[in-house]
Amino acid sequence: MKIFFASLITLVVSVKCDTIDWSAHQWQAPSPTDSRGPCPGLNTLANHGFLPRNGSNIIRETVRR
């Protein structure tokens, strides 16, 4: 059962990763005016441009994408 779920998760993640344009999501250090919080996961997403790089106006729909 564990192998089934691990295989399923691997399949879903690999299909989702193929649709991401990684060239548009290169790491950029936050500028002095950018806002960062205590959550390293959200900070990483903002530093890579998956969330607004300035750290402001993050809405639930943006996080779900």
UniProtKB/TrEMBL annotation:
GO terms for molecular function: metal ion binding; peroxidase activity. Its cofactor is heme b. Residues 1-17 form the signal peptide. Belongs to the chloroperoxidase family. PANTHER family: HEME HALOPEROXIDASE FAMILY PROFILE DOMAIN-CONTAINING PROTEIN-RELATED, STERIGMATOCYSTIN BIOSYNTHESIS PEROXIDASE STCC-RELATED. This is Chloroperoxidase. InterPro entries: Chloroperoxidase, Chloroperoxidase-like_sf. Keywords: Heme, Iron, Metal-binding, Oxidoreductase, Peroxidase, Signal. Coiled coil: none annotated. The keyword Metal-binding applies. Pfam families: Peroxidase_2.
